[in-house]
Design a protein that fits this description.
seven-stranded mixed β-sheet, Aspartate Aminotransferase, domain 1, alpha/beta, Aminotransferase_I/II_large, single chain, transaminase activity, Aspartate Aminotransferase, domain 2, binds pyridoxal-5'-phosphate, globular, PyrdxlP-dep_Trfase_small, 2 domains, transferase
Length: 353
């Protein structure tokens, strides 16, 4: 606390990201980064952009990137908004579209940045509990509200709704904005981006951090009706004219131009996930069905916080949340086959001990 802070700052509870420690030979399975690097085409584009041109400001509208993403998804550039990571896109969404007289609904267990943005922007929120199977039930959202946001697949559970289930939710609230955060959609979910043509209240947010291996570059986007996009542009242009730098724009475009690399690395993550789930299940873990690049698992006889601490002592990082309902779970990002094998071996030793 400082007497120099604006009053709102005294009230904030900031988001705490997974740690990025500087430990040698660390097996880092705690922040859902992709174990494979970005496409070589992306690295070439970054090298080409690293030139004298950096003295110039980037395109404030990131038009090339919007055109590329719009073309990839079969929609129009004016249906795309881009930002410095989907976290920034989410932040602008909370300010531009989710602050109303009635509360914003979101799951009780979900991306923990949502309540943080509510605090920052003064958005009243109401938590909707996941059901006993840790699933989002769209019918539970049939209540008076100002807007709705869910992650699909949800985090940190990893469980996905079908596109038809998401459509039911969007249909049931024609006069409210429904935001679907699809950060993990490429690892096993069905995107609802095509539905934006039919539902002017639907905003879909994606990131290049996970399935396109660009967490270090910070690129995210939203897809929706041009009126929703214009609301986001108004906030963005009142905040930062140039959220994406020249290198990010060039790299983002290149990431969509290498579909083969994208498909191959996403499939490798999915295959490793299948093996990891089998390995954890053999050790007695209960693993929720994952459509993401992480699994959420608990062991009926071993405390999750202790397992996380003991793994850390073996230079393996996983994520543990000290939160009601999920404090007996570990969230484990899918690494390479070798990393996941090392994790299973380490857990086997801990459980046997
Ligand atoms: C990782 C993640 C994001 C943020 O991604 P960035 O684009 O890296 O900011 C947003 N939503 C969910 C659910 C995530 O897990």
């Amino acid at each position: 606390m400082s007497r120099f802070w604006s009053p709102i700052v005294q009230t904030l509870t900031p988001y705490v990201p997974g740690e990025q420690p500087k430990i040698a030979n660390l097996i880092k399975l705690n922040t859902n980064e992709n174990p494979y690097g970005p496409s070589p085409r992306v690295l070439e584009a970054i090298a080409a952009e690293s030139s004298d041109a950096l003295r110039l400001y980037p395109d404030p509208n990131s038009d090339r990137l919007k055109q590329t993403i719009a073309h990839y998804h079969g929609i129009e550039p004016n249906e795309i908004f881009v930002g410095n990571g989907s976290d920034e896109v989410l932040a602008h969404t909370f300010m531009a579209l989710l602050k109303h007289d009635k509360p914003l609904l979101h799951p009780d267990i979900s991306y923990s940045f949502y309540p943080v943005y509510c605090g920052l922007y003064g958005v009243e929120n109401k938590l909707v509990p996941l059901d006993s199977a840790m699933r989002i039930n769209p019918a539970d959202y049939n209540q008076d509200c100002g807007a709705i946001i869910i992650a699909n697949p949800n985090a940190p559970t990893g469980i996905a709704l079908t596109a038809a289930e998401v459509e039911t939710l969007v249909q049931a609230h024609p006069d409210k904005v429904v935001v679907i955060d699809e950060a993990y959609i490429d690892f096993g979910g069905e995107t609802v981006i095509p539905l934006i043509k039919r539902y002017p209240n639907l905003l879909v947010i994606q990131t290049l951090s996970k399935s396109r291996s660009l967490a270090g570059l910070r690129i995210g986007f939203a897809a929706g009706h041009p009126d929703l996009i214009e609301g986001l542009e108004r906030v963005k242009n009142s905040f930062n004219s140039y959220p994406l730098d020249r290198i990010a724009i060039a790299a983002g475009v290149a990431a969509y131009e290498d579909e083969t690399y994208f498909q191959r690395t996403v499939q490798a993550v999915i295959d490793t996930r299948t093996n990891l789930v089998a390995g954890l299940t053999l050790l007695g873990f209960e693993v929720l069905p994952s459509a993401t690049n992480f699994v959420f698992a608990r062991h009926p006889r071993h405390d999750a916080a202790k397992l996380a601490t003991d793994l850390r002592a073996k230079a393996i990082l996983v994520r543990h949340f000290k939160q009601a309902r999920i404090d007996q779970y570990l969230r484990i990002s899918i690494g390479t086959d070798e990393q996941c094998e090392a994790l299973v071996n380490a857990l086997q030793a801990l459980i046997a001990a």
